[in-house]
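Quick question: what would this complex look like in 3D?
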Amino acid sequence: MPETRVGRETGTSAEVINKIVPSAPAAVAGVPDGATVMIGGFGTAGMPSELIDALIEQGARELTIVSNNAGNGDTGLAALLKAGRVRKIICSFPRQVDSWVFDGLFRAGEIELELVPQGNLAERIRAAGAGIGAFFTPTAYGTPLAEGKETRRIGGRDYVLEYPIHADFALIRALRGDRWGNLVYRKTARNFGPIMASAAKCTVAQVREVVDLGDLDPETVVTPGIFVQRVVELPATARLRATVGAAA
Amino acid sequence: MKRFSREQMAARVARDIPNGAYVNLGIGLPTLVANHLPKDREIVLHTENGLLGMGPAPEPGEEDPDLINAGKQPVTALPGASFFHHADSFAMMRGGHLDFCVLGAFQVSARGDLANWHTGAPDAIPAVGGAMDLAIGAKRVYVMMEHLTKGGQSKIVARCTYPLTGVACVNRIFTDLAVLDVTSRGLVVLERAEDLAFEELAALTGVPLTDALATVG
């Protein structure tokens, strides 16, 4: 449920929807131990680094993280892993040139990995947000990543049954948002944001700028506010990390 | 025997990408293809992290951390480009909208099975990314790889020994020695490196090959 407050706006009495929260700590308040948390971003593009820092401060443990990668360098998701808060990670590409935190935990057997092809990961998240119970996908048929899974031949093609991934919280980064939670993104930083927003019970968006209701052109809103529960304005601190040679 | 250089391989792949095609170029060797796409063809590059109409690398100092390719390198967006989220991006592959992808490989089998994501080594940390989605999603899958391993073993094999990325998904193989089509009748050699006899290529490859030139001629 959106946080609401009774107030006056433009002289009329109204129950105002206001999803804006004042700070990163307020944005991640209430994440329980054992929660499943989606974290947007592809590498560092779209990574909600300040929300992750706030989650580390907040202290939730035994988390299951859903994210494309498993952290870069020593900051953001990597710092969350390093702090020992993550029991399991569901991702498509953990191994990168700068994923030493994950690599160390994995080799030490201190983190569980569920490796999912990137498109199946995206579709499982989308399916959760769309209320789909399961779906058949051709991706990974006949490979080790489909071992033990139900398969079916449909129209002469082989498919693997995959289930949705639901989350308690999604932490994403967008460019601009309003108090109804409408979001627009920036370039390839959009990546997992819109689908994760739909798949979590509580979606938290960090935006570079909060704008007035009506300032976002309805024709160009990418994530309608119904999918978003909290919006927090945080300064842009995106750092370029051109990890040459690191694959998707 | 004169092997095709990496640039020659890239130029050869580019020749087989027609005007108007939507194309995804995989990480590594396939990225070279972008430099050889003929100027008189309008070819739209897809990068699975969410961009159609990808342009070349930006000038130094012009890099944008929010504008990267699937290899997480900074790129540019051409006029006509579009951004989209991951579910849409992979629908473009899986839904049969993407015309071509060009992928690297550890091994390709005679029936077009692809192995390119994992060596299967017990201490290796597995990572798959979009490889499996691309392999089964693009309408035509081109593989670009060295013909032989450093140890001289053929990377074209009867049956892949590395973990599979996709089953019977490769259409054409471009190596430093030859261009081969995967067909229902097995592998057909379309071109060979200069001074490389068909019999010599067949001996190096170790699986049955058909000579397209001999068949046609």
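Answer marked as accepted. The two ends of chain B are 24 Å apart (CA to CA).
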